[in-house]
Amino acid sequence: MASNSSGGSSDRQRIAQQRLRVIAGHLQRPVDGDSAVLAAEYKAQGEQPGSSREEKTVPRRRQEIMKWNGWGYSDSRFFFNKKGQAEFTGKRYKLSGLIIPALKDWFESTFGASLQHKTPATPILNSSAVHPPTLNETFVEELKSTGIPFSHDAEDRVFRAHGHCLHEIFALREGKFGRVPDMVIWPNCHNDVVKVVELASKHNVCLIPYGGGTSVSSALECPPEETRSIVSLDTSQMNHILWIDEKNLTAHVEAGIVGQDLERLLNESGYCTGHEPDSMEFSSLGGWVATRASGMKKNIYGNIEDLVVHIKMVTPRGVIEKSCQGPRMSTGPDIHHFIMGSEGTLGVVTEVTMKIRPMPEYQKYGSVVFPNFEQGVACLREVARQRCAPASIRLMDNEQFKFGHALKPQVSSIFTSFLDGLKKFYITKFKGFDPNRLCVATLLFEGDRERVLQHEKQVYDIAAKFGGLAAGEDNGQRGYMLTFVIAYLRDLGMDYYVIGESFETSVPWDRVLDICQNVKERIVRECKDKGVQFPPLSTCRVTQTYDAGACVYFYFAFNYRGLSDPVHVYEQVEHAAREEILANGGSLSHHHGVGKLRKEWMRETVSSVGLGMLKSVKDFVDPNNIFGNRNLL
Amino acid sequence: MASKAVYSHRDPMLKKRDDFEDILEERRNSSDLRYALKCYTPVVYKGISPCKADALTNMVLQSSHLHYVISQVSKETGRAVDDVQDEASAILEEMAQRLQLSTIRFFAFTLSKVFKTLFRSICVNEEGIQRLQQAIQEHPVVLLPSHRSYMDFLLMSYLLYTYDLALPVIAAGMDFMGMKFVGEMLRMSGAFFIRRSFGGDKLYWAVFSEYVKTMLKNGYAPVEFFLEGTRSRTSKSLTPKLGLLNIVMDPFFKGEVFDMSLVPVSISYERILEESLYAREMLGVPKPKESTSGLFKARKVLSQNYGSIHVYFGQPVSLRSLAEGRVNRSQFSLVPRHIPKRPSEEIQNFVNDSAYMLVRAQEENMVLKPWVLLASLLLQNHHQSQAPGQKPGMALDELTERVVWLRDLSRQYGAFLHWPDHRAPSDVVSSSLSLHPGLVKISEGRVQLALELGGDVGPKESRSADTTPEEELLSRAVIVLSCASYRNQALHVFLRPALLALAIHAAASTKKQEVFYSFSFLRNMFSNEFILVPGATVQDFEEACYLLVKTGALQITQQEVLVTERGHRTIVFLTSMLDPFLQGYQVVCRFLCEEATEELTEKQFIPSIRRFIIKHLLAGRLRYTEVLSSDLQKNALAALLRLGAVQKLKGVDQGTLKVNTVMVNSLEDTLGGKLPTQKVVVARL
Ligand SMILES: Cc1cc2nc3c(=O)[nH]c(=O)nc-3n(C[C@H](O)[C@H](O)[C@H](O)COP(=O)(O)OP(=O)(O)OC[C@H]3O[C@@H](n4cnc5c(N)ncnc54)[C@H](O)[C@@H]3O)c2cc1C
Questions:
Q1: Do A366 and A336 belong together in one domain?
Q2: What ipTM, to 2 d.p.?
Q3: Are A390 and A493 in contact (CB under 8 A)?
Q4: How many Å lie between the alpha carbon of B253 and the closest alpha carbon of chain A?
């Protein structure tokens, strides 16, 4: 069932359709292919109402639609065509089928890479290279009797053995498989999960919950030292909205639903959650809860902890949930906060009641160019001080600004080369701005039309005080579009000796500039020290604003030609960068979580007492370490 | 250990040093005027935010740090904020430099003239200059020259101008401000002035530290200051002062800059302009008043040959690498960075250790002239030949033989010795001696200190009617102290082996353990006197053992430390080197036990101990005139205070010294080898 609500009102349907198109605005290519269309002004187009109902994105066999050794859909990828131009395949995204003329130039000059030097991935998943499963026979026997689907097919297991950290994908491209789960189970509902957890406890089997597989903290990696049979509990088939409560504006949803399905289905009833992490196409509600995820539009809708009203989780001790849905309680420490961020170490989140909102009437992108990053940060700080941040506001540094330009598709650009384009852009609009220093903020406003316009003016007025000039909706929209394709770009880089990844932190306002500068410089330094032959791409953006600080996102990539162990070098540099973040007053993570990648810093992050508290909860809830993914602690 | 970055204990002989270029050569061959007017386009810090001196002042006054302290002071004192603000501006006004290229050009011209008259050459390691140039572009730079002369800082700016490097801003003591015109000239050549003491003055500290940090962070200019705090009157490096080092390091700790280069610079003078002034000052003999006309006008100064100057720009030390693994910068995450906080113990220790390492780095690249070795030998000889019946002085060829021996020894210890190997040793000796006519004289083929006022008569008979024995003693002491200041230039080379030699001498047995106790007692005792890195006793001991074993002076087994046959000469030389200090510290102890009345204040300490020592010297009960040095006396007192043998009273009796006679007595006996350095003593110290 998609919804128990009465979706009869034609008014609501109209809004729903409009909302769908808005989502399509940053996710998908408009049907008519007119990429110049502005997101906020999608005209009514022929939709196929109802066609999306019940249709779920994620099949049990992920391999049917998704890559086994890269990001996203199998049909969507970047490649350099015979003319050496970059192209994006498929039909799903705005960029799909388009040529991106400036990308090659940018790519070659930024990384010192060359299209002549290829590092292709292993083409097919070789099942025989996967270790045969260690099965717990009695567990399997009893499981069969429950009728819950499961598999120990090698492909199914490999798909659940990783997230999207660089080292994970790199190994897959090389056809290397470490410890993978011994079997995969697809429960269909809460009760199925209860049964599975009971059986696992009874037979001492290790369970690892699997949502959308978008983890970037090594959270899904099987601990190599685990000797028990490891079972991946794939929640993807628990993907229904169980009810919508319009009086209280809440929806009760199964935790395996992925972001795009949740929004699509709610939109059909005229609602949304507004929770849009960049991974929302694939990441799941349970995953968000388990990692304390953060969405792009948190300024209006809040982060996952603000959105959640009620959580049901199955643990080896039984089910944990609150007895009512009161909007706030003073009942001791909030037990939700043991669940959120537990990263699959305590149990399986099965059902969540979330806040929903009526879909916004109007949406508008925007962008502002600042003479330099310092001014940009000062502007964001002021916006936060006045508490007038739009749904999203992000500030990219100069390198990312250039990168954004390199990704302009052919149709929207008459420029012949990347540099020409940049020069033209700069000369025509921003005289006096140094093209090597300027930076851009992208904006997304949402709400009713009048208020959006008012809000927009307020923000642009503040920006003007910091030397910011409005740079059009197009630039803003492209910025958001990029967040969805950027993960595909990493795969392209990996075809040509370029590896990289992003990581994030949160930091008080007065530290933002220093941390950006120091971490970027540390990355450059470490690369040099570790023998990287070409200067790396080391860039950042401020992606979220808060009253007391901001979230900063770093991108880092380099050409690894000449290195014998590039992944190791990558990891050393990332490690050093994290040390630098901590030394500069940044947090261990704003939203990616700790997993196994960052757990060495947990003690200094939360203090020994803090760590002890978390341990004692684990010891009580899961004394036999059934949820044995060994994240966090 | 991070200290490795600055210096390493192991085999000092392997140290590689750059070559020197004489910059005066070009000055002698081309126009000074053109040089003073040359095109000057230094490279700057890549992260510079260019600003004028005024803008700088504004940045300081607008800083959150200063705002915070101003409102704090206003709350505490009840004064109006504006009032405190005005005071802050006034402080800044009094402090601020006003660097002007025109002034630098003026100095470039006049100093060229002066330098050419005074000095034979000014030699600079150009590789060091290149390293510095690189460093200036990468990160904010802190220049840390050694301090032996008023000349130092003008010389530094002169050199940087010569090499087209960014001109520094220099922390200078307020005492210059007494000379109005000079003060303003210096201000315009980049000096900023700091009051000598501002103890608890929060506001002053805030203005001062913010000012320095602002200049540094913005890459406005390299910041230069003297780690030793003041000019060393003795040519020994002084215990580093930590205040400014703390300030400059702060922006790194707090993540405001990525890194910072600390550049030790060693300035060695073959002859120091202030030579005899210093000796007089330490003896309490009135000296010509320092006034504007003081230094350069004196014909006497200008007519003499001051030999050469060597300036060695050391390896820039990355503060980041230095702090790696030693400082956890996240300790600054919990309090806003603009709120002043007492540095944690971790930071204090780190700053202290770094300061010592940097001073040692300065020491290591100090160029030693043959004269330094000669002075050491002549001083030792002087004291030994005081015994009745001995002919005064040393035969020239004996001196030559000895100095060649010492040359080889010092090289093995890693000294940066400039000995012209292509010339005959006797030649080197005589030309070195000729540069110091006021200190040595040669008669009948014998060399001795130029102590006698006239004729070859013994001190008693020579006394003329108008000089008292005391005056005579003091005028001899001027010569001895001057010579000692040359010997002191080489002290850092011999220090660790010499402490070991003394320890062997003093130890109750040849047991290694005993020798070590004795070594660490002496090291501890003398740590206000010499540069000894705190907490590095074991390393120092090992280094000393290593050097003495390597040069065949010692044999060290599992249990024992034995002096070899041929090692005797070395051991005697080394112990004699520290003997005056040993005696000095003993005298200070004796004075405190015998003479220190209830009312002895810190102020009276120097005059009274001076009287005490003069009395004993005149009575022939003391061997070393050198113990008259107020520097030594102060250091000894500081050591006793540190060890708790003497206490400074607070409250009504402010400044009164309270002597723990039992402890002072036992320290004196231990120094004199009368008491064994038991474990207990060492442990307590
Ligand atoms: C391209 C890209 C963009 C991203 N953008 C964002 C972003 O904008 N904001 C953000 O917050 N994160 C982002 N992430 C990180 C990632 O998407 C989030 O951590 C997300 O919440 C993970 O959800 P998932 O369903 O994919 O969980 P998975 O990756 O499958 O699992 C993550 C962890 O949660 C546990 N887990 C999963 N489901 C459950 C459950 N039902 N019950 C208990 N435990 C469970 C797993 O055991 C694992 O430890 C991004 C990642 C990528 C690759």
A1: no
A2: 0.87
A3: no
A4: 9
